[in-house]
């Protein structure tokens, strides 16, 4: 869930402010109300406004896809200043990262400067592969010059056994989206995806998703433009993989944290594109009461540039809310999982309540409970593993990848090679 949303909350003002503001935010968030209007160091270039969203329902027993009960408001945790609940990796954004290059935001899509000719077939909008680097016998890093991003970014590709560059055969594909404050190397660096999917005749495509891109075309004050992450992933990466790497048209989308939101919302917004979508601790209800203020306050770099002002651009927020649009998943296989933020079997039992990993998963847990409840109401079958105690980290996501993979493989026709 991360929404990059996955950005660190800035430390604002004085020590007194650092103590008082979190308490104020929490009370407002739990009431479903945003912080007072006006800019602050904590909200960056955004103006926080009242939040909104559908009524929520209580959680279901672990593993259940059919919670019941009367609607009740979501209970969201305190998010202290300086806390980054949705961070899923280390390091820093690469130079020229579209998210942190504020000078490019809102500009008309264009090929990045210095783009050379390409021997590879291009995407419909002119996006082109400008480099391919072999990482090992089955993994390649592909550089893509993207008009949607106005930059050259990378995508990691894991080919199946028996793959050949000159063939007419195609393979089922898993598009794997990384989490916040991370990059295209995350799935091979942080998980065991090579061991889980490697034995199967499936290709895995792991595209760059931006430092805090949130798997959407940014609002940018209503003018759109760069960065357009959804356009990059759907209209550039997919055709480039199919035209040059023999990726097939039978596809699944998986993701963790903000990448989990991407997997589910892409499946909703492009209903014939994916046959299966899996989210691990994804941000699946961004308009839940209190969530807009938390997300816009955390994501200081982007402010409200990603989805817009939650009041004036309410329709855009709802258009990117997985819970609001759950009915669009009809006919698509769905797997969602999350913990509740309490220390679980892979965590230190003495982890303090304000630890970022606890807060991040409590937020994810609330959103996933709402999503599962909405799926039941809409008659959408969902395989849900709301496993209770567990924090926001890879120890759980690796387990969930392994647990969800058999259903994904069966749906896309990926057998052991």
Which features would summarize this protein structure in a list?
9 strands; 9-stranded mixed sheet; alpha/beta; 417 residues; globular
Entry summary:
The chain is of the alpha/beta class and 417 residues long.
Secondary structure blueprint with pairings:
Layout (H helix, E strand, L loop, with lengths): L14 H16 L97 E9 L2 E8 L4 E8 L12 E7 L8 H5 L2 H5 L5 E5 L21 H16 L2 E10 L1 H12 L6 E5 L10 H8 L15 H6 L13 E7 L16 H23 L4 E6 L5 H19 L5
Parallel strand pairs: 4-5, 4-6, 6-7, 7-8, 8-9
Antiparallel strand pairs: 1-2, 2-3, 3-5
How far apart the termini lie comes to: 33 Å
Spatial shape: globular
Strand order of the largest sheet: 1-2-3-5-4-6-7-8-9
Helix content: 25-40%
Mean pLDDT: 83
Major beta-sheet overview: 9 strands, mixed
Low-confidence stretches: 1-73
The computed structural class is alpha/beta
Radius of gyration over C-alpha positions, nearest whole angstrom: 20 Å
Strand fraction band?
A: 15-25%
The overall strand count is 9
Question: Helical region count?
Answer: 9
Order of helices and strands: HEEEEHHEHEHEHHEHEH
Plain-language structure description:
The protein has helices spanning 15-30, 186-190, 193-197, 229-244, 258-269, 291-298, 314-319, 356-378, 394-412; strands at residues 128-136, 139-146, 151-158, 171-177, 203-207, 247-256, 276-280, 333-339, 383-388. It has a nine-stranded mixed β-sheet with strand order 1-2-3-5-4-6-7-8-9, with helices on both faces. It is 26% helix and 16% strand. With 417 residues, the protein is an alpha/beta fold. The protein is globular, with a radius of gyration of 20 Å. The protein starts with 14 loop residues before the first helix and ends in a 5-residue tail after the last helix. It contains nine helices and nine strands. The longest helix is centred in the C-terminal third of the chain and has 23 residues, at 356-378. α5 links the parallel β6 and β7 (276-280).
